């Protein structure tokens, strides 16, 4: 769920979203897509392993999925995302899809890179007034991600503008 959708939900439930500090954490778009690919195991028909019609015998190769894959976006959430976010590519996974509304307004106070957990811990410790140590979970197996060719990177950059800038991709 995106920050604009969360703020809308808070408001509908009688809470003032401005009373809260909203932050999010992102990660390098390529390693995030690699993790997503390994976890959901897309098949050649674009179905993920949570689908009843998923065919584990016809998994699509990672680079083919990167070139032609897509993920869905919920109807409710789609009402709160920038116009470039759609279900025809990976843009629903972008930072913009999670923090900006349709008008381009940022709805988070701060965002962090998952690759720098110490910064998150320090910031949270300062807000909460006591030490915070984040657990390290969601560690992918040690299988190496294939090198992503430039033509695929060119296709991905418009889907992850902020991350590509932040990670110099």
Q: Main beta sheet, described?
A: 2 strands, parallel
Write down the secondary-structure element order.
HEHHHHEHHH
Strand portion: under 5%
For the record, give the distance between the C-alpha atoms at the N and C termini, rounded to a whole number: 25 Å
Approximate helicity band: 25-40%
Describe the global form: globular
Stretches where pLDDT falls below 50 for ≥5 residues? none
- Major sheet: arrangement of strands: 1-2
User: Measured on Cα atoms, how large is the radius of gyration?
Assistant: 17 Å
Beta-strand segment tally: 2
How many separate helices?
A: 8
Q: Provide the residue-averaged pLDDT.
A: 91
**Structure class:** mainly alpha
Quick take:
By secondary structure, this protein is mainly α.
Describe the structure.
There is one protein chain. Helix content is 37%, strand content 5%. The protein is mostly helical and 169 residues long. A two-stranded parallel ribbon has the order 1-2. It starts with a helix and ends with a helix.
Task: For this entry, give a set of tags.
5% strand; 169 residues; single chain; globular; mainly alpha; two-stranded parallel sheet
Detail the topology: elements first, then pairings:
Layout: H1 3-12, E1 23-26, H2 29-40, H3 62-68, H4 75-78, H5 95-99, E2 110-113, H6 117-128, H7 150-156, H8 161-166
Parallel strand pairs: 1-2
């Amino acid at each position: 769920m995106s920050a604009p959708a969360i703020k809308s939900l808070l408001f509908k439930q009688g809470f003032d979203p401005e009373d809260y500090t909203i932050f999010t954490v992102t990660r390098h778009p390529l390693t995030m897509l690699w993790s997503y690919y390994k976890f959901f195991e897309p098949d050649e028909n674009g179905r993920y392993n949570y689908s009843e019609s998923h065919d584990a015998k016809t998994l699509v190769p990672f680079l083919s999925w990167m070139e032609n894959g897509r993920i869905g976006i919920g109807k409710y959430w789609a009402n709160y995302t920038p116009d470039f976010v759609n279900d025809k590519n990976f843009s629903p996974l972008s930072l913009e899809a999670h923090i900006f509304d349709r008008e381009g307004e940022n709805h988070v106070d701060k965002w962090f890179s998952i690759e720098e957990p110490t910064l998150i811990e320090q910031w949270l410790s300062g807000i909460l007034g006591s030490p915070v140590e984040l657990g390290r979970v969601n560690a992918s197996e040690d299988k190496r991600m294939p090198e992503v060719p430039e033509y695929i990177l060119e296709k991905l950059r418009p889907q992850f503008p902020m991350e590509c800038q932040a990670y110099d991709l």
